[in-house]
Amino acid sequence: MLKKSTPFFQVLLSLLLGLVGAIIFIYLKLPLPWLLGSITAMAIVSRIPFIPVKNPKVLSPPARTILGLMIGSAFTPSIFQSIGHYAVSLIMILPFVFIIAVCGIFYYWKILGHDKMTAFFSSMPGGLLEMVAIGESMGANVYKITLFQSTRLLLIVFSLPFIIEIVGGISLDGNRVISTPIKDVLFTDMFILVFMAIIGVFLAKKLNIFAPYMIGPMIVSMIAHLSGWVTSHPPDEIIKFVQIILGTSVGFVFRGVPFKEIITTILSTFGYFFILMCVCSLFIFIVSISTDFDLLSIILAFSPGGQAEINLIAIVVAVNLPYVALHHVFRLFLVMGIAPLFAKKFINS
Asked: Which stretch of DSSP H or E encloses residue 97?
């Protein structure tokens, strides 16, 4: 009986339905099929009560670990030649985050009428789980923060591929080869990648580094590839599977939420989304005329979406992955560092 199905079966069914969504997107020649197809399929299916699906968040840590390894493998010694331009671009993250936060707080607080703390954490361009956790500890409306942050992520992830296709003049449809096919990967390379992942997560947890499952393996992989000790990358098929895991998880964003509230949340988030697009466009223009980085890399670096999702898009698009990754890591560390401090001052002002 479906009602008595185990959590394992429910997760497996979710992933299979995410795969079906990806295949449909490939057939229809829609952009980023493995990610957007699985998001779309699960966003629809998760609203149907009698289908026993479950959020595969249990697989999120290993998926983010693989993503961290892939990002780290893109770091090469040639990066040091552009270190000056990296610094100029990274510095722009400071005013970028400040302006986004101020505009977002004003929008959610003064225009939509939410309380100060909920407005603050709904507007912060940080990680969803982290903003929810900090917001909860400080008395904010966790339900609203989750909805607003998740909707922002959804709008950005869905709009970016189309923006990239228009601006870059490239097609993101079909079953694109991202990395080395698994049949061509040596067993020793796979062993090295697994070893780096374990070491990276272990060290990140010991040092209390933010997002240990992704940042830890990314740093270890980065050091190994910069030094030339390792040249291997996670296989293509595994990167596609990671997209299905993350896409399926994102697709659960509106599960159990009344349909009327979904529409209201999406419409209200469109206002903040418009603000984000204006601010992002300004900084993308400034950085593009101040540095030599390609436009698509700058667009992704200054896209305030989820770190995992944006980096995943950067991998598929094959832009300057180290550049994009460093900007998102810096942005998230900045937000995580200042959010609790500024939240206390803001609520008491």
From this structure: helix 93-106
CA distance to 111, 161, 220, 254, per residue, from 269 (Å): 12, 19, 37, 14
Q: How much is the mean pLDDT over the chain?
A: 87
Report which residue type is found at 142. V
Per residue in 143-154, pLDDT tens? 898 889 889 988
- Helix (H), strand (E) at residue 328: helix 321-347
Tell me: pLDDT of 210 over 50.
Answer: yes
Query: Total structural domains in the chain?
Result: 1
In a domain, 15, yes or no: no
Q: Using the 8-state DSSP alphabet, how is residue 58 labeled?
A: G
Which residue do the tokens 């493995």 mark? Answer: 34
Domain of 339? 75-233+256-347
Is 83 inside any structural domain? yes
Q: Identify the three-state secondary structure at position 173.
A: strand
Confirm whether 63 is domain-assigned. Answer: no
Q: Is the pLDDT of residue 2 over 50?
A: no
Is the confidence at residue 1, as pLDDT, over 50?
A: no
Angle at 25 between CA 21 and CA 26, to 5 degrees: 115
